[in-house]
Amino acid sequence: MSIILAIESSCDETSAAVCADGVILSNVIANQTIHEAYGGVVPELASRVHQQNIVPAVQQALSGAKVNKNDVDAVAFTRGPGLLGSLLVGVSFAKAFALAKNIPLVEINHMQAHVLAHFIGDNKPSFPFLCLTVSGGHTQIVLVKDYFDMEVVGQTLDDAAGEAMDKTSKILGLPYPGGPLIDKYARLGNPDAYKFPEPQIPGFDFSFSGLKTAILYFIRDNVAKNPDFVHQNLNDICASVEKRIATILLNKLGKAALQLGIKDIALAGGVSANTGLRQGVQELCNLNGWNCFIPKLEYCTDNAAMIAIAGYYKFLKGEFAEQDVTPLARMPF
Predict the structure, then answer these.
(1) Is residue 244 within 8 Å of residue 260, measured between CB atoms?
(2) Is there a domain that residue 325 lies in?
(3) Torsion 10-13-16-20 (CA) sign
(4) Total domain count for the chain?
(5) Rounded to 5, what percent of the chain is helix, strand, coil?
């Protein structure tokens, strides 16, 4: 039996997980509330809280999995991309644990792990498949040919879809984190109440900077006419913004699937927790007769279970990292 301890610390969640022969036994996520007062993640504060959380998170993961630390066969960890200070905490812990137990280190690309989250559980896509990976920092369409043979066929040219949602929430005066609140209010609103532009970008690439500007001007102009505009129309604004972001993503995904002849379609990343986007991908697949794969909510946001499953497949290949490995804020896909 191969037992993998996994560490994820790329941003503001400290997570540890344990898997045995590709089966997730535990997945612990310690969130950081300290950033709420600042309206976004403060990198220095994030790294300090990771230092406080990482030992308890690992202990809880091992305890929940009923695994003794001496039985761990390898330590998988997020090397990047992410916040350098946050990554440093996770990488340092993983190196120390592996050195103390004389076991291998397995470095994992955070974005590849989001894709491989689809191999947790029984409902797995078949190669090749397309994965729309959407988060606060990344928006990509990935052609997945094998576990670690992935090609980015489309990506954002500027801002990520998750960032567009976060900035919209700030413009609307919503507290951090705003993405889940936009999702919540959108469920109560009319998605066709307001029309926002769709960028005309060739190929499979995305752009969200112009949309952010359009939303900003829309709110500014309407508030100038009616100071209570946002309060009176919050649900409809959130629903309309969510629909436009989702249609931008879905139109490109559908175009890529048709041109590449792919029928297994997957969704991943933190923004894949958004209700409207999840429903949209399912409807797109139903319309075209494609197979749809969407992870459970607990495996959408940053979590160590996805690092564990990616680490398991790398462990089987015997691809190990050296003890002098360092974190990478930007890591090639």
Answers:
(1) no
(2) no
(3) negative
(4) 2
(5) 50, 20, 30
Question: What is the model's pLDDT at position 39?
Answer: 77
User: Which residue from 170, 137, 220 is spatially nearest to 39, judged by alpha carbons?
Assistant: 170
Lowest mean pLDDT among 86-90, 162-166, 325-329: 162-166
Do 64 and 185 lie in one domain? The reply is no
Shared-domain flag, residues 22 and 82: yes
Q: Are residues 225 and 309 in the same domain?
A: no
Measured between alpha carbons, how far is 161 from 138 in angstroms, rounded to an integer?
Answer: 7
pTM equals 0.94
Q: Tell me the pLDDT tens digit for each residue of 99-137.
A: 999 999 999 999 999 999 999 988 899 999 999 999 878
The DSSP bridge pattern shows strands 3-8 and 74-80 to be parallel
Does residue 169 lie in a domain region?
Answer: yes
Domain, as residue range, for 244 = 126-294
283 and 306 share one domain: no
